[in-house]
Specification:
Helix content: 10-25%
Strand content: 35-45%
Radius of gyration: 18 Å
CATH superfamily: Lipoprotein localisation LolA/LolB/LppX
CATH class: Mainly Beta
Strand order of the largest sheet: 1-8-9-10-11-12-2-3-4-5-6-7-13
Shape: globular
CATH topology: outer membrane lipoprotein receptor (LolB), chain A
CATH architecture: Clam
Oligomer: single chain
Number of helices: 6
Distance between the termini: 8 Å
């Protein structure tokens, strides 16, 4: 599979080609017997149970690689603010080096909005769940949301899909609290490091994904914070009202989008 690294929630409206998400890479992997340690599996199970909550929010500081036309890698920083209301509401506000974006899902359609360009696109989601929306967006448009596994209906199972080995490296201290540092491998050449709270919730604190089989061995880094399970968002919070001067972009049919995606640079 050919992959080019571009900045999240931007190039799809400008005609760009998007990288495959972690979830998609999991699905594309050849089935192999998994050797995940009991301690690592138990920590992921606790994480999955916590993230199946009906509603919560968090923030993520991310760094990912953008490959220029000449192949030189540049690192792009983003801040993501995510609000989840299961089973069918999601809001993602993104600000970063390349501007501001927003993803809004109201249970019927997903809207991607680019603030600087004042353009937006709408993707109908017949099944009406967060997981169905992510699959529709990533499958039809190639929109990459690397944190998708954590928002799926079974986060621990989604994270482990395609994984062939996993273990706890050590217990480390971050800001005075203990965390489990976990390491996972997924052929061909994908490595994931995950830091989880060492407690009953096992909430994620850090994620690093390294692509060993790609030139330069690029990676994606996320630092999680501000987890809140006491929020009470209303349906209005997941309603997108485009500015008066915003322009709606008509998207290509699914077949055309899929065909275009295959033409990306490695």
């Amino acid at each position: 599979m050919k992959i080019r690294y571009l900045v999240v929630l931007g190039a799809v409206l400008a005609g760009g080609i998007w990288p495959t998400s972690i979830t998609e890479l999991h699905a594309a992997a050849q089935p192999k017997k998994s050797a995940v340690s009991e301690e690592a599996g138990a920590a992921l199970l606790r994480m999955g149970q916590a993230l199946r909550a009906e509603q919560f929010s968090f923030q993520a500081q991310t760094i990912r690689v953008y490959a220029e036309a000449n192949g030189q890698p540049l690192h792009i920083f983003h801040t993501m603010k995510v609000v989840v209301h299961r089973p069918n509401r999601l809001l993602v506000d993104v600000t970063g080096d390349d501007g501001s974006r927003k993803l809004v899902f109201d249970g019927k359609a997903a809207i991607i909005y680019l603030a600087e360009q004042k353009r937006y696109a709408t993707i109908p989601v017949p099944e009406g769940t967060i997981e169905a929306m992510m699959k529709e967006a990533m499958g039809r448009l190639g929109v990459d949301f690397p944190l998708a596994d954590f928002l799926s209906e079974a986060p621990n199972k989604a994270f482990l899909t395609g994984i062939t080995s996993g273990r706890v490296v050590d217990t480390v201290t971050i800001d005075g609290s203990p965390y489990l540092h976990l390491f996972f491998s997924q052929p061909p050449g994908l490595e994931l490091e995950l830091w989880l709270e060492k407690n009953g919730q096992s909430l994620p604190r850090r994620l690093i994904v390294t692509y060993r089989n790609l030139p330069g061995q690029p990676n994606f880094i996320a630092e999680f914070s501000d987890w809140n399970f006491n929020i009470h968002p209303s349906d209005a919070d997941f309603t997108f009202q485009p500015p008066a001067d915003a322009v709606q972009i008509q998207l290509k049919p699914p077949a055309a989008a899929s065909s275009k995606k295959q033409g990306g640079k490695p």
